[in-house]
Fold this protein.
Amino acid sequence: MEIVITISSGFLLLVGSFLCISGGIGLLRFPDFYTRMHAVGVTDTLGAGMILAGLMILSTDFLVFAKLVMILLFTLLIGPTTSHVLAKAAFHNGVIPKGSNNLKQTKEKESTSSII
Amino acid sequence: MKHTISLFLTLVAFWLLNSGHYSLLILSLGFASIALILVIAHKMDVVDHESQPIYLSRKIFGYYIWLIKEIIKANITVVKHIWLGEKSISPTLKAIKVSQKTDMGKVIYANSITLTPGTVAIDIVDNEITVHALLYKDIESLEIGEMDRRVTLLER
Amino acid sequence: MLIAATLAILVAMILAIIRGIAGPTLYDRILAVNMFGTKTVLLISLLGFVMGRPEFLDIAIVYALINFISVIGVLRYSDTNQFKHTPKKNKSIEKEL
């Protein structure tokens, strides 16, 4: 039983760490703001989820388990909210996505939103 | 009334799980703070079906399981493209239609889009969500409307 | 394995800091700071397990909430004040004010 717990939590922590580092690499590698946001999304959802799940398996106390679940719920609630607010602020302040197939549409949206 | 009870139960669970002390003094202090929060929430007029969506609670678990599956799939795709590099991605911005009627349904849909890595909902105007996607494929799979259909089923 | 995960999180935080310093636009910096904050939450909970002190989890919860409030606060400010890049928009906002 002991060894199953060690191996499964170790596996989850390893995958979570790999996802977090990949997100960091993506944050450095991707060409513009909007694509970088997707890289951060990886670390916010599955990266944090895997690491917290690994800790949940290790926890012996029920309260510790409950607190880890709470942190996971907060992360999953907060992640999309900040991403959306950040993207909206950038979009309305004129950061135009790079390499987009429909730049014209972007500019139209931009002008309508500034009128509103 | 049922919204107040739901908020009360949430706060009681939050207090008990976070404190871990069960002496009479601590419990009464907790009860006092919960009562204060209930009064403030009623004065702010935020206790309603929007902040306490209990009517969703029966169907939402099936949706969550489906959403977690989608999130894992999307994560694998995005991580693959992070390591493949800049050449392999095709960032796209597009407005897609939504079929939900209520605000709650639209918010759930937009939040699910943002929660899935690879797609971010930027803006909602009436019946259109502006979505930025890492790959053009993601936009196409949103337009097919699997997620849209499932959220519409939720709001009934 | 716990220590390895802690080191991995630290590496991710360093990468976020590099993007925060280099980031061409303001929003890249805010994005990097936000990611730094969420990684700090994970780091604190991992450190709690490494040191055998589960009380650290309370700090992690508080840190998650503070991080959220700070990012939202900065972006609320960006909506209203002279955060905008183009001078044309600045003028129209001054008129509105």
Observations:
- Residues 109 and 117 of chain B are 14 Å apart (CA to CA).
- The mean pLDDT of chain B is 86.
- The interface with chain A takes residues 17-18, 20, 71-72, 75, 78-79, 82-83, 85-86, 89-95, 110-111, 114-123, 130, 132, 134, 136 of chain B (CB under 8 Å).
- The first strand of chain B starts at residue 92 and ends at 97.
